[in-house]
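Action item from last week, closing it out:
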Amino acid sequence: MKLLIHPAVDQARLDRIGQLSPDLVVANVNDPAGALREVVDADAFFGKLTPALLSHAKQLRWVQSPTASLEHYLFPELVEHPCQLSNMRGLFSDVIADHVMGMVLCFARNLHIYIRQQQEGLWSPVGDSSYVTNFVNAPGTVTPIDRAHQHLSDLTLGVVGVGAIGAEILRRAAAFGMNLRGVDPVHRSVPGTLDDVWPVSRLHELLAESDYVVIAAPHTPETEKLFRRSVIQQMKRTGILINIGRGAIVDLADLVLSLQEKEIAGAALDVCEVEPLPSDHPLWRMPNVIITPHVAAASTRVPERHLETLLENIRLFIRGLPPATLVDKRKWY
């Protein structure tokens, strides 16, 4: 049984792979010409597969993508090939969920505004800039400042795409006491958190009911530019759109128009339709927008999980079992 790795991995990872079975032959190859020679009799492949490599493969049965997303990995010949394909999903769920809740808290408590004001030495509470004295309000009095700062358990968070990441976002939001909504083409519940995940046909209901709409869906033919202006307009005018899924899901020009026309209250983006986002893009200068540079999955824990997922899928392949992260090539997930 032969596994081709291309580009090559470091010696430490290669040693871990080599310890899995004495029957496993590993070709760890960096140069493209060498990969073309080695792929001819390879049973499995890990790395960046190309049409040229696939055309030389004679007995390939399994391909492991090094990434969770597949929009830039798949090509027509691979989709039609009988080999199984697996990805690296499930590595980032808690990390990305933490990032999302950070974005929610920023908007709920106006932290994105206060951080900017701090740079100017400006004491100006959102809701009443003239309020400068800290005192206890009369019992039962709700001030403009109170109304400008949200209480999370009064709010609804809706997740578009309730896979591993979306489910973890819902669990984090539940810990804050938020009301939950979710839509997904496959999953119908998050055990212990949300009993009823709606089909995608009820997306309009989620948008209308959610104070925070979080996109955690993969980029597929069905989700590309799903969030055009007509869809964004279905959100609450006080709603916040958060995208940590894929940039191609949100049409940035339409999002800018919706923000300019105050059709929604704000947006938080870790991924953008064009990356890096050009420095002259209007989103940079909008005070009701938070932009992070595609770092929601950044964590010291992820490389370790990446290797463990690869090792587990190799173990399963050796035993003749499907990989734990098997994907549907035609659906891109």
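Closing note: The longest helix spans residues 302-318.
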